[in-house]
Structures are given as structure tokens and as C-alpha cells.
Amino acid sequence: MGVLFAIIAILFASLFLIIPLVEKYGTERSPEELQKISRFITPLMVILIIAMAIRFFIS
After folding, report:
1. How many domains does the chain have?
2. CA diameter of the chain
3. What is the domain extent for residue 42?
4. Distant-in-sequence, close-in-space partners of 37: CB < 8 Å, separation ≥ 6
5. pLDDT digit string (tens) for 7-42?
6. pTM surpassing 0.70?
7. SS3 sequence of the chain
8. Which residues, including other chains, have CB under 8 Å from residue 29's CB and lie 6 or more apart?
């Protein structure tokens, strides 16, 4: 149980360090880049749901 708490503590500590660094040094995306990325989200979510359903019903 102690190992679990250590892993969770490390994850939260890394999040508190990484998120501010990404916000500070990350580049702002242009609307064109965001549109390209958002185009792929819906098909990927559909594939994920199908894969989860297959995994649920087969195993």
C-alpha cells in the first residue's frame, strides 16, 4: 500500500511541476493547427469506443 501512495505522490508532484512549465514555454497553436487536430478527435474516439466494446464483450 505504501508503494501505491508513493506512486500517486510522484504523479501529483510531477503534474505540479510539468503543467506550469508547459504553460510557460509552450507555443500557442494557430486556428489552422487546432482545426487539423480536432478533425482527428472524433474518429479516434469512435475507434476507442469500438475497441473498448470488443474488449468488454470478448474478455
Report:
1. 1
2. 47
3. 2-58
4. 29
5. 999 999 999 999 999 988 988 889 999 999 899 999
6. no
7. CHHHHHHHHHHHHHHHHHHHHHHHHCCCCCHHHHHHHHHHHHHHHHHHHHHHHHHHHHC
8. 37
